[in-house]
Amino acid sequence: MRTITAAAVTGALLFALTSCFSGGDENGPAADLTAQGMVDELTELYPLPNGRDNTGSCDTGKDHPNDCRQLITTDPVSVYELKTDEAAEHWAKQMDGVADNTAVQAGRFALVWKAEYPSDQDAVDKMTARAQEVAAGK
Prior knowledge:
five-stranded antiparallel sheet
């Protein structure tokens, strides 16, 4: 009886831990996180002025797999919320280097740092690391 109980408890713990750290996809702990939520998280580290919702520029309205769910544009960075990690990877690859911008993936989010509003590299590194933590549900 103790062996069965111990196995059940161990299984439940493993399930809970796996659920907590599987984040970034649409079923993980960051599933409810929006692009605006990501911007809010990053603003706690550094100011991101002039935030505006530009979702219409990246959503075809045809439910394409690479359509964004939300796009929040600030002066230094645009945060794209995508449906999947794969879509975010696609967007980051497509936008990295365009007009000297730098794009990174953070789970199902793509962050595009604008060359026209240069940011301190340390700030970019810290916000990128935080975005990856938040996307992973940490």
